[in-house]
Amino acid sequence: MTIVRKIVPYLIAIIASFAAAGIFIGLTGANVFQAYQTILITSFRTPNGFVQTLLKFIPLTLQALAFTIPLTAGKFNMGGEGQMIVGAIAASAAGILGADLPAFLLLPLVILAGVVAGALWGFIPAWLLYKFNINEILTSMLLNFVSFQLIDLVATGAWRDPVAGHPTTIQIGAGGFLPMLIKNPPLNAGLLLALLVAAGVYIYTSRTAGGYELVATGANPRAASVFGINVKRMFVFSIVLAGGIAGLSGVIEVAGVQHRLIVGLQHNFLVLGVIIALISKGNNLAVPFVAFFIAILEVGASAMQRTMNVPVEMVFIVEALVLLFVLLSDVVRRR
Amino acid sequence: MEKEAILELRNIRKVFDKTVALDSVSFSLYPGEIHGLLGGNGAGKTTLMNILYGLYRKDEGEITLHGKKLNIQGPKDAINHKIGMVHQHFLQIGNYTVLENIVLGTDVAHPGSMNLSAEANKLVELGKRFSLPVDPDAVVDTLPVGTRQKLEILKALYRGVEVLILDEPTTNLTPQEVDDLFESLRVIVNEGRSIVFITHKLREVLRVCDRITVLREGRNITSLTRAEASEEIFVRAMVGDQMKIEGSVYFSHAALANTAVDEKATPALEMKNVGLKTKEGISKLSNINFQIKQGEIFGVAGVAGNGQRELAECATGVVIPSEGTILMHGKDVTSLPVNELLKDGIAYIPEDRLHDGFLPKANVAQNLILGYHRQKPYCEGNLIKWNVVHDKVRGYISEYNIKTNGPEDPGGNLSGGNIQRVMIARAFSMDARLMVAHNPTRGLDIPSMDFVYNKMLDHKKTGSSTLLISEDLDELLLICDRIAVLYRGQILGFLDRKDFDKYAIGRLMSGIRAEETADMRAAP
Fold this sequence. Notes:
By secondary structure, chain A is mainly α. Chain A is built from 13 helices and two strands; from the N terminus they run H-H-H-H-H-H-E-E-H-H-H-H-H-H-H.
């Protein structure tokens, strides 16, 4: 009963946003029904479409979690993209430098390097917040721009792949590749990592004492500190953990999908991650499901652009509207 | 009784969301009377008067003044009809002078030059007439609470009100100030004005009011003249039939048994020369010395803002004192943080429940384990056992009469009184050896207050100690073994239960170190 009551506003929001976005698609002169059919069915029509969807689902889930974990403690991590890029850089560096190492050494090294680098990138705004009380929204966001320059530097530097037409490094050692779950279409084991992380985050926040402290800190930091919770440490911890998870999403892009560092690997993951986190209303259990839904839209949107010449940005409108309507349903219910 | 009522409220109804705050309440006011509006928390007293003053709109009912129907849209209308209200929280501009606060919003004789000598004269004259002396040129921030209240009453009188509503006017006054206030009120009504006196304190109402109306749960219960009724009738009217008055602490007249203090055992809490300064170097506490014996309820009296909050936070480890030592059961805990102390067996009911004690975005169960979430039986290893927590919480909800849909109900759905019940249930849930309670019964109705007092006395019987910091002097006199009086961050004196005297405490509360209390000061 309660679950139904929670899901109904989402369904209404989705239908309403599809209807509203349909107007815009109609205005471009395209067939609205055919467009929506493409968006919704592409993911399920072919094995390739489904794998594409899962490959989107991995970074989206991790990026959204990198936003919801600090949000649980009442902080905003706007640096998920930067943490992902730095994680990807560190993973590539480990993969290239240790190219000759056997897989049982190199793969853990690649993963660890990426996660640690992402966590360190998150530690910078966390430390500034802890020490000087500098707003973490600003610092984490600005560090994204630093990471953009950093990836340019690495991808055009000593490890540059001269034959690629795009700023790209050479391949990492084969021992650093994530194992494949399916060979064709290619699906890597990053999916398992993402699901594991999502489950772990959910169990941590809902079952453990530490997770309880995180929730209490977000609910009222003053009361939490009066009752013995070190809230500043919770702030730091939550942002660092988020950085590590965002770093992992960078690792999976490098070690699982591309096997090299490519400039632009972050796509729009930060914005989409924030949208997923907010549609989930910060609920860690809801994140993977919402992320999967958004992944369907994203994959469908590319197909729609290819087959019908409707720009992918249309799907952005749908996603933004879903968020708006979900937020609106909160306001309506409060009345 | 033959007089014509000047003001009548008939069948007033007001609904907030789904709660009926007032259900067909009627109220009448005669010229020249002090009319007590009595009731526990949430009875609807303030809501009714806020409707009269135009702060809320009524849903049904009518208001007549001098027989004419009245349509009040806001406080401005009310003042135009010579109705004035003094709120529990004063609406004053701190860095203005008394006179500037008085004339604010009125027409002055010389608006160009702001020469206010005529207004100043009028104010001084009013002050003399009603024995409410104030210095027109004093800056409001520098005045004590008692004087600020006088200012608030003068503000209404200056505007020529005929009906004056006072909402819990004695909350922060010393007993002497209460006496003075009551004398002034008598002068005010002798000139033909009428006063509505909102309070939950039965004894005050019996002292000063001519007529008394009792509200309970948004309904009229009774309306009687002072002469017609006994205290018992009002007690019964205030609390209803569910509560056993015989077993009640709140209404007990006899001195409570006061023997369970273990004088020889190591004190539960000892403060030696404790002082606290803010970052800016302003002293908040200085030279605090006292011991709380095992099984003792140690009270701290004082007008709000004299260092009570700082004292509570030093005792619980929320802040570390800048000087001195704190011993808890003989162990030096001066620099231990609050989580260590919670583990060691303290409980804390903070004064500011919304900011310091409650998680509005978390559910009831999460709120009830805050601070104890790493202790058994709630937590084992690092995992919180939510099924155990929820079972316990269901027990607390029924024992403490918390009105909620269950352990997973969001905290934000609770009303103020229910939030306070959560604070109390949490504090008593762990059998703490030392409880620090700051205004623990604020916002509770009488049966709940009684429940808390009984809990505290039970707690005392087990040999546990309590530091009870309260602005409600009656509460302290009722259940404490010893009372210390805090004034500007210092303890001015201690009184043993046999020496309890409202007026002696009142003098200390206003900073007068009286000779006869000086020799009572116990050496720490």
